[in-house]
Structures are given as structure tokens and as C-alpha cells.
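Hi R.,

Here's the chain you asked about this morning:
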Amino acid sequence: MTSSPLKPGIDHLPQVQDARNPGMELDMDWVMRARANRSAIERRAATLPGRRSVKKDYQAAWLARAISCIDLTTLAGDDTPGRVARLCAKARQPVRADLLQALGLEGLTVGAVCVYHDMIAPAVAALEGSGIPVAAVSTGFPAGLSPMHLRVAEIEESVKAGAEEIDIVISRRKVLSGDWQGLYDEMRAFRAACGPAHVKAILATGELGTLQNVAKASLVCMMAGADFIKTSTGKESVNATLPVSLVMIRAIREYHEKTGCRVGYKPAGGISKAKDALVYLSLIKEELGDRWLRPDLFRFGASSLLGDIERQLEHHVTGAYSASWRHAIG
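And the predicted structure, written out as C-alpha cells:
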């Protein structure tokens, strides 16, 4: 990375919103032509973490950009309205006020707050007036094995409750058995159920077997109208990785080149360090360009990442690292 995607203090400019991806008819010839050269992909991915990173003000600017692209997430069985309210307060002010003032970044917020369906109402209430959308996981998250009519109904209920974004999980078995028409029809039904809410298709890439399957599933979901494609639920044994990200990002690039439609990308699971965020941002910049370095086209699915970024920003301002407990998430 050689330049900053923003300058500290002037990132709050009007955002350009692209038209949503309307999808297209399933093009089986295109899907079946999809290939993934594992050795080449892994070599390319291996070069990213070892590169010299941005420093000083530029690093602070990139980290601020990363914050603006975080889906601040809580998906625990013991979530309560109080915990969600605290998380939403953190979403509104993700970094201590004194640090934001020193950086000239007052008004910085995260990209969204992501919760289970039952926590949509308290999240919407806590975020009222902030402009931060609520995202809800849906369709039998994380396994996606509930009956189809219930998965569709779950989406509809979450949209009715106030979710502006829906993170759906695809049926992995359709990918593993090569049922691309079935996957397309499923994704199309999910997109229709979302109505005005944007839909992120979770591929659960750690369970798809091969990078070629990841490439094909990415294309099919985009053809069916996905606004974002997302790596993982965060519940699999293998979540976001750089090789998988490279495959999905290049599928997004190919789809844009052929259709003119921009589809977003969301890596999720296992991204907890500021240095990892910088690597993912550099990958996006190099493969897709600056337009994708905005929260309408790029998100991190994360919970602990924000705390580490805040520590790095405090170090930038004060020259000293603080204890992690000084930067509580919620």
C-alpha cells in the first residue's frame, strides 16, 4: 500500500451509492468455466502480509477506514437487550472521544451492527438517528438447514422488525452436489424476501471443499442478486482466509466487468488484529480499486477487531500502548 484511502479529518464526504445488483439469468456456461489455480492463488496471497505496510498518519487513516467498514457483531446465545445497547453505543462512538478529536475524525462510526433476529428491536432503538443500519443473520443461521418456507419467513420477519441488511446462509449441500440451479433458485427467493433490505450471501467457504466451488458459488449468488458475498458465519472451523478472499474478490471483479454491477465483499471470522485489517484493505485496493474501500461495498464481520484498532490509534496519538480493557467493546 503506497497511499491513504482517506486523509484524517476529511473522510465524512457524501457517499456515492451504486444501484443494487439486480442479478441476471443463471449462465451455466460461465459458472462451469470458473477455475481456481490453488498454487497460484496461495502464492499471491502469501505475498500480502509480508509487504511493508503504511506508517504514521497514513496507517491511522487506513485504520479509521477499517473501522467505518466493520459490521460490529454479537451472535451469542446469551445476548441481552442491555448487551446489544452497549454494543450499539460502541458502534456510535467506536473510538474514545479524545482520540477522535486528536485525529480529526469526530463523527466516525462503524458500518453496521449485526445481531440475531430477537435483538433487532433493541438494536434499532439504540441506533435511532445514527444512520447506522442493523444487519440480521437469517435463514437458519449458521447451518441453514431449516425448512425453506421457514427460512424465507425468517427473512421477512427480520425486515419487518427493522433490519436493513440480511446475512443469509446458503445450502452448502447444493454446492457440494453441484446443484447450481437449486442454489440460484434459493438465493433468488432469499433476495425477493429481503425486499428493500440488502442481502449478504454467506458461502461458509470452509465447508465448500475446494476453491473452485467457492468461485462457482460466488458467481451463482451474484447472478441471483446478492448485494454482498461473505466468506463465513464465523462458526466454521475455517473462516476468512486470504486465498478464499482472493477467489471471491476476483469473481466480484469478473462479474463487474461483464455486467457493470458492483457487488460487495465481507470477510468474517478470525479477523481480530489491526494488521490483518490492513492486509485485507490492501487486497481490496489492489484487486478491485478504491471504490470498494467504502462501507457500501466492503465490510469486516468482526467483534474483537475494533478493540485492537483502537489500541493502535491510541499508540499513534500518545506513543504508548494501553491495556485492552481500556477499550471495551460493550
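Confidence is low (pLDDT under 50) at residues 1-14.

Let me know if you need anything else.
M.
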